[in-house]
Amino acid sequence: MKIIQRNEVTSLKRSVDQGTEEQRESVKKIIQEVRTEGNTAVKRFTELFDGVSLDQWQVTEDEIDEAYESVDGEFVKILSEAAANIRKFHEKQQSNSWFHTSEDGSILGQKITPVDAAGIYVPGGTAAYPSSVFMNVIPAQVAGVERIVMVTPPGKDGKVPAGVLVSAKLLGVTEIYKVGGAQAIAALAYGTESLTAVDKITGPGNVFVALAKREVFGDVDIDMIAGPSEIAVLADDTARGEEVAADLLSQAEHDARSSSVLVTTSEKLAKDVQQAVHNQMETLPRYEIVKASIEDYGAIVICDNKKEAISTINEIAAEHLEIVTENPFEDMAKVKHAGAIFLGPYSSEPVGDYFAGPNHVLPTSGTARFSSPLSVDDFVKKSSVISYSGQALREHGDKIAQFARLEGLEAHARAIETRKGRWE
């Protein structure tokens, strides 16, 4: 893991992956064919990309029950407790419609309504992610979404990982389809003979999923364009090198393009972490992925002082930020850009991935500068409500008409003035 200086941080910054021209054209072709051919195209692309031919791509109730029976009871308990924690956190995010009545009798307000249907993408590929089920489904349920559809790539055996199906069963999600990639996003956005289209698509995936979400945005809503996972750790001499190294590696094992960065003022800690990363990665089952991630996207940044270190953290704007310093809450107050912030030596990043409650669907690639974690707000719409009174129109009608004429919109002005008989 390389050690770099503060002035080399620019090399660590990444923009959202736009894919290659070939990938973008491939995604457009897939989406168009799913739109025109429906199930036939989905079946064809599943055979091509996942290596399995499926006549029935909706998961059956028997398959869900079989998965539930196949897992250890202790695992189900852990999943249930994690789901309860996540639900409790997201319930605190709920907001209500509100109305305010003015003295003149006008009523202004905001009406909050959940989307009708949400599509949840649960990634497959190099690992199975029951946690993605919880993090996407639970905020949608708390928001009041009536129909939640889950899509996830099938394995070579034509099955969905048991943990994913058990997580869905615990939440009561029964509309599940064995389809992944761009074809899954297209099916959710435009529908097929078997799958009715949704209004919102959330959940992380590979570059083809990200490009497909970008392509369908506007016809449906999406959460974000998620890139490879990232972690930045802000640490001082109070941190333990082996713990920081373990946390950096926890993100490196996600993907060969994942980024793990330590920012510190301590040269001793930098060297300790560098050695610990090398030692620990040697024994990890996903060694090749971790090695590629650490070599290509891992770094240790040594800063002259705390102010410079925090400035570096803000410049990186990481998806996950751990603050392992003598005064983590004090340092957090100076952080402006981060998807999720983990404070102190006991708040290892996997605590948030699985169990604590906050959402782990987070902005990546520096987009924490302007975006937020997935939340209940992502699954609701806010409508403005205006009920003007006669008294208010009498008082302000001429001003409104004049404003309209300033913009050259005569019909707007007349729409107000036609009601003059009501207020004169």
UniProtKB/TrEMBL annotation:
Domain of life of the organism encoding this protein: Bacteria
Pathway: Amino-acid biosynthesis; L-histidine biosynthesis; L-histidine from 5-phospho-alpha-D-ribose 1-diphosphate: step 9/9
GO cellular component: cytosol
InterPro entries according to UniProt: Ald_DH/histidinol_DH, Histidinol_DH_CS, Histidinol_DH_monofunct, Hstdl_DH
Binding residues for Zn(2+): Q251, H254, D353, H412
One GO BP: L-histidine biosynthetic process
Active site annotation, chain numbering: E319, H320
Any one Gene Ontology molecular-function term assigned to this protein's record: histidinol dehydrogenase activity
Record keywords, A-Z: Amino-acid biosynthesis, Histidine biosynthesis, Metal-binding, NAD, Oxidoreductase, Zinc
Cofactor binding comment, as recorded: Binds 1 zinc ion per subunit.
UniProt-listed CDD domains: Histidinol_dh
Record EC number: 1.1.1.23
Cofactor: Zn(2+)
Chain positions recorded as substrate binding sites: S229, Q251, H254, H320, D353, E407, H412
Catalyzed reactions per annotation: L-histidinol + 2 NAD(+) + H2O = L-histidine + 2 NADH + 3 H(+)
Function, in words: Catalyzes the sequential NAD-dependent oxidations of L-histidinol to L-histidinaldehyde and then to L-histidine.
Family: Belongs to the histidinol dehydrogenase family.
Protein name as annotated: Histidinol dehydrogenase
Native organism taxonomy: Bacteria, Bacillati, Bacillota, Bacilli, Bacillales
Gene that specifies this protein: hisD
